[in-house]
Amino acid sequence: MSVIIRLIIFTLALSTGLFAQNQELSSYQRKAMNTERFAQPVNTGLNHTLLILGSAWEVSPELGDEIAVYDSKKNMVASVAWRPEQKGHAGLAIWGDDETTTAKEGMTKGENFSIQFYDKSEDRMSQVQVKRWERGNEEFTKDGVSVVGALTLNKELEQNIELFQNVPNPVTDNTEISFYLPQDRKIRLSVSNTLGQEVKTLAATKYNKGMHTLAMDVTSLPAGVYFYKLEGKKSSVTKQLNIIK
Predict the structure, then answer these.
(1) Using CA atoms, how far apart are residues 12 and 115, in angstroms rounded to an integer?
(2) Are residue 144 and residue 167 in the same domain, yes or no?
(3) Best exposed site among 48, 178, 229, 241 by fewest CB in 10 Å?
(4) pTM score, two decimals?
């Protein structure tokens, strides 16, 4: 069986839990999904497999480094913690958009994705430039496969305040909202309805630099579309969530 086929099967295992009964693979699955810089994306059930061969890197990543994929609107749609167990190969499930909701949780057919690499030891984010595709390209297709054969870290990216899509979405009872802060700062995280009326305040305090995840209980709210906003000193980011009953 070729390396590419094995990686496709493994990536399917990451996204679907196919090998849940295999303790070795399920342990690896948990480690690969245990990202610290990026949140986990919404599993919409539609995905495109991205494989990055270990030989593609000019300098191999280190344990603790992470890889993420973003859509054209700068929404994070895939993430993985780099692990050395698979000979440096990395597999990501890039999630497609759930067309049953009005929020954009994933990618649409024909939309281009971009890849970012986080160097934990240097606390540095870089844009990944693909120099050679072994298969496919950066265009999203349902059940598609793209394989990176060679890449370079093109440029360092500024790390700004980042708000991730709530998981799960849509939500019936409980969901989690994650955000990243580039430095210690006081933030406010609130939820409003479509009329602009605030219905919940999830946080209004100072947080340390890094990733944070807050739980949200929506059982007291009626079904519908809501917006959650993260406000910092000079910036704010808003995303949409859907409550169903």
Answers:
(1) 19
(2) no
(3) 229
(4) 0.89
112 plus 8 within the same structural domain:
yes
Is the same domain home to 137 and 227?
no
**pLDDT for position 78:** 95
The C-alpha atoms of residue 37 and residue 178 are separated, in whole angstroms, by: 10
Instruction: Give yes or no: residues 69 and 8 share one domain.
Output: yes
Same domain for 141 and 166, yes or no, is no
Among 228, 220, 141, smallest CA distance to 177 is for 228
First-to-last C-alpha distance (Å) of the chain: 46
150 and 46 in a single domain? The answer is yes
CB 52 within 8 A of CB 89: yes
**CA neighbor of 63 nearest in space, from 47, 85, 42:** 85
Last residue of a domain, one of 102, 126, 157: 157
Which tokens hold the place of 187?
Answer: 């933030």
Rg of the chain over CA atoms, in angstroms? Answer: 18
- What does residue 132 show for φ and ψ, rounded to 5 degrees? -155, 130
Cβ-proximal residues to 59 (8 Å cutoff; 6+ apart), any chain: none
- How many Cα neighbours within 13 Å face the side chain of 68? 21
Tokens matching residue 226? 């809501």
Are 14 and 31 within one domain?
yes
Report the DSSP pairing between strands 66-70 and 76-81.
antiparallel
Q: What is the pLDDT of residues 192-237, one digit of tens each?
A: 999 999 999 999 999 999 999 999 999 999 999 999 999 998 899 9
Q: Which domain holds residue 50?
A: 3-157
Q: In what order do the strands lie in the sheet with 124-135?
A: 76-81, 66-70, 114-119, 124-135, 145-157, 47-52, 90-95
| CA–CA–CA angle 181, 74, 28 (5° rounding) | 70
